[in-house]
TrEMBL record:
The lineage of its organism: Eukaryota, Metazoa, Ecdysozoa, Arthropoda, Chelicerata. This is Tc1-like transposase DDE domain-containing protein. InterPro entries: RNaseH_sf (IPR036397), Tc1-like_DDE_dom (IPR038717). GO terms for molecular function: nucleic acid binding. It holds the Pfam family DDE_3. Residues 37-99 form the Tc1-like transposase DDE domain. It comes from Trichonephila clavipes.
Amino acid sequence: MINGRTRLHVVANGTLTGQRYIDEVLLPHVRLFRGAVGDKFVFMDDNATCHRTLAVQDCLDSEGIQRLVWPARSPDLNPIENVWNALGRQVAGRNYTPTNKNTLIRALTEEWDKLPEQLLDNVVQSMVGRVECCITLHGGHIPY
């Protein structure tokens, strides 16, 4: 969001299922973040299969979390992809390349905290253009 971010949460072991997404991401992190932001909070995920389960939708509904609806398989519309790219470049540019899962998690976390706030603000502000572009390309509506 503009002028803010959450801590990076790394799901390191096993497959991320809908239930793990609820237990490890939505309830402990997104719910609290939504509470801090207030009623104008709109949540955007990346349309991964585990994010689209009925249990996840029920959880979001029960917590009053509004999800931004956007077309499946359209990563170019998701600004977080630009952030992941910047984060990956930062990790790749470190003096010591991570050699195992623990050092990779540490590197990702350290570099996440160092990402310039202006980069994150620019990515969030780019959403207006992304949504307008999508609406224009699809004749005035976003296909669901």
